[in-house]
Amino acid sequence: MIIVMRPNATKEDMDYVLQRAEKLGLKPHISKGTERTIIGLIGPEDALRAMPLEAFPGVEKVIPVLAPYKLVSREFKKEDSVIPITSRLKVGGKQIVVFAGPCAIESEKILLEIGEKVRSAGAVAMRGGAFKPRTSPYAFQGLGLEGLKILSAVSKKLDMPTVTEVMDPRDVGLVAQYADVLQIGARNMQNFNLLKEVGQSKKPVLLKRGLSSTIKELLMSAEYIMAEGNHQVILCERGIRTFEDMTRNTFDVSAIPLVKQLSHLPIIADPSHAAGTWNLVGPIAKAAVAAGADGLIIEVHTKPEEAVSDGAQSLLPEKFKTLMQELQKIALAINREI
Ligand code: PEP
Ligand code: MN
Fold first, then answer.
1. Cα separation of 22 and 14, whole Å?
2. Which residues line ligand 1 (CB under 6 A)?
3. What's the CATH superfamily of 2-63?
4. Is the pTM of this model over 0.90?
5. What values do phi and psi take at 70, rounded to 5?
6. Domain spanning 83-333: which superfamily?
7. 298 or 51, higher pLDDT
């Protein structure tokens, strides 16, 4: 249920709605717009019906939210959400934010080398996994805490914010100490305990679409995070599993404009994990930006042939630089910046 308050509603009017909601065990979510305040009330339909909200002072309109995702929906918030990563960098505004770096953190030397290259090519944030969700238990699992320390040291040296994956609810606090954005990987998109845990965190969350998840399921997972109070969610299309096996995943370009119609949350694209091979990364990235993606997350490695994970889909820094130049032209054509 969405309650639209009148522009001249007083603090007492607001408090009255909140008190009545609280008595019925409903969780209010407040969104303050430039003109009006909107209160989202989430809870059992019976409890919502028990309140004659239209008769409350200061209430202009009561709108039932039909979609199963509530806080995530455009109905709840008309304006695009802009998620601050640092005081200077935000996702969801005019700037298309590019995160780049290796699949996995391998050593400080390698991460610094890659970080310097991607920064000079125009990336504004760094990626790198310390906890890696590998298909095989025998494959490199990531450097763990040591990796997080390297990430944060390099981030400070280069003055670039970072995103890294958290796989275990018990590690959320730890990862939040070292990274600026918490990544929920595709394999964990429906790990509801993990979603609830990052929902309790104060850090922005990058939520990747599951390997075989629908757009509705992606939005429901974002709802889990927001329902815990963390409204700083960035969605990510990274390709889905289809009958096609010549690419690692099928990049669902339509998810980008569709998500933007259904939700106020920003959505970025990961062309690397969709492609599986470096020579498809550029074209997919360009399509994503043209379709309205708010950012990109791209795997780059100075020596892809020696990378411990996902070397085949990692771009060489020179190729990444050329791609960034091409992307600038697309951004300009759609009135955005990169
Ligand atoms: C990654 O970004 O390193 C990763 C493992 O991606 P995904 O969860 O999309 O497979
Ligand atoms: Mn990877």
1. 12
2. 103, 129, 133, 185-187, 208, 238, 270, 273
3. Phospho-2-dehydro-3-deoxyheptonate aldolase; domain 1 (3.30.70.1140)
4. yes
5. -110, -65
6. Aldolase class I (3.20.20.70)
7. 298
